[in-house]
User: Which sequence fits this backbone?
């Protein structure tokens, strides 16, 4: 026969009593927790909490994927002019090469800023003034929105916004 003292009986029955109390007061406990933790109000009782956590984690993963894609796009933008100029097939240059016409490199003039009061400008990332020479072209005149250059082929206006 098994003999238990009062302390041992209390230890055996205490988990059952706690569970019975929790079950009987579960609505009051949930209401109290919602009052103490308003962030989770309606989420735990409705069963949507895990679903919303999963959606939040998915959004975080998607954002990381999009950020990686945009970084790759920015890297490609750096190389795309070189690729199109040197690697891709250009029908016009291929026809010219077949006919024996080789197109000479024509300098591109990129006027970036004009400082007419100081008779200075920035062209092809270089500061220039009247009389300066850039890519074998002499800067003749600087106006408020354009500059006049003299090349082997003659005079040419380069505009700020073309």
Assistant:
């Amino acid at each position: 026969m098994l003999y238990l003292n009062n302390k041992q009986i209390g230890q055996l029955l205490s988990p059952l009593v706690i569970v019975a109390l929790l079950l009987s007061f579960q609505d009051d406990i949930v209401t109290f927790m919602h009052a103490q933790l308003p962030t989770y109000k309606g989420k735990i009782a409705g069963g949507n909490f895990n679903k919303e956590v999963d959606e939040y984690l998915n959004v975080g993963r998607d954002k990381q994927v999009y950020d990686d894609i945009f970084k790759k796009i920015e890297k490609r933008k750096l190389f795309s002019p070189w690729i199109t100029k040197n690697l891709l097939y250009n029908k016009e240059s291929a026809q010219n090469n077949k006919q024996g016409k080789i197109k000479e490199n024509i300098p591109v003039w990129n006027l970036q800023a004009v400082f007419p009061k100081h008779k200075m400008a920035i062209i092809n990332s270089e500061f220039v003034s009247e009389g300066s020479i850039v890519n074998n072209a002499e800067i003749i005149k600087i106006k408020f929105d354009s500059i006049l250059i003299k090349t082997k082929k003659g005079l040419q206006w380069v505009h700020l916004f073309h």
